[in-house]
Amino acid sequence: MKGVIGLDLETTTWLDESRPIVNQRLSIACACTALRERATGIRTDLIWAGGSFGETMDRRLSSPCEPQMSLVEVRNILDYLERWTSKGFIPITHNGTHFDFPVLGTNAGEIERAARLSLNSIDLMLVFAAVKRHRISLRALGDGFNLKKGTEHISDGSQASRAWQEGKHSMVMHYCLKDTQILLEIAREVDRQGAFIYSTRSGGYRTALLPDWLRHADQWTVANVVRHVWEQPDVWVTMPAVPLDFVDWIPTRLLREEIGYDPFS
Fold this sequence. Notes:
Layout: E1 3-11, E2 28-37, E3 43-49, H1 57-60, H2 71-85, E4 89-93, H3 100-108, H4 111-119, E5 122-123, H5 124-132, H6 138-144, H7 157-165, H8 169-193, E6 195-199, E7 205-209, H9 222-227, H10 244-247, H11 252-259
Helix pairs in contact: 3-4, 7-8
C-alpha cells in the first residue's frame, strides 16, 4: 500500500433506510478526497461539487456550486479513484460499501465500476462490524481517539443535506472535508493500536481488539473482510450484522467472479 485516499460525500436529500439504496436517486451535493502518501505523509485534499472537477477548497469556494453533481462530474471522481488505486493507493470510507460507492455508482450510471472500487477499498464500519457484529457511527469511533466529528453548524449527514438545500454550500463542503480527514486519522490509530476504541451511548468507552486476520491495515479491504468468517457477536447483539448487509447492491455475479463470495451459498 503506497498510500490511502479518504473519501466522503454528501447528498442533496437524506437516505430512506426503508428502501434499497440502489433504488433511490440520491443526488450528490459534494464529495471530498484526502490523499495521503505513506512514504512522505503529504496529504492532498480535493473538493468535488457541481460545476467543477476536484479542486482545492480555496479554488472551489471562488465560484458558486451547482445544485448537484452531473453524471460527467461523478464519473470524474471514479476516474480519479481508479487512477490512484492503480498506483497502489487504497480508498478509505466509513460505510462506503453501503452508501458512498452505491451512490457514486447510481449517479454515474456505472454500478459495476463503483462496485469494483468498493471491493478494493477499506470501509471502517465494515471492519468494525466484522469484529463486533454491529454498526458504529463515525462520531463514536472519533470519540475513542479524541477526534471530533462534525463542525460547529453540522453534526451529521441529514443536517448536511438540509444545509445544502438552504444554499449553505461552503458550510457543507467544510463538514465533508473534515469527515474525510478524520477517516484517515482513525484508520491510522486503529492500525497502530490494533484495536477500535469507541464511545457508547451510555457515555463510556470500549475497546475492540482486532483478531489476527485483521491485525494489519493491508488486511482490511472489503474483498478480504466480506469473504472471511466474521467474529462471534456478543450475547446482547440480537440481529448480528452479516456481509450481505453491506454488499447487497453489488451484482452476485461480480461477487463470485471478483472475490469468490457467494452470498446465497
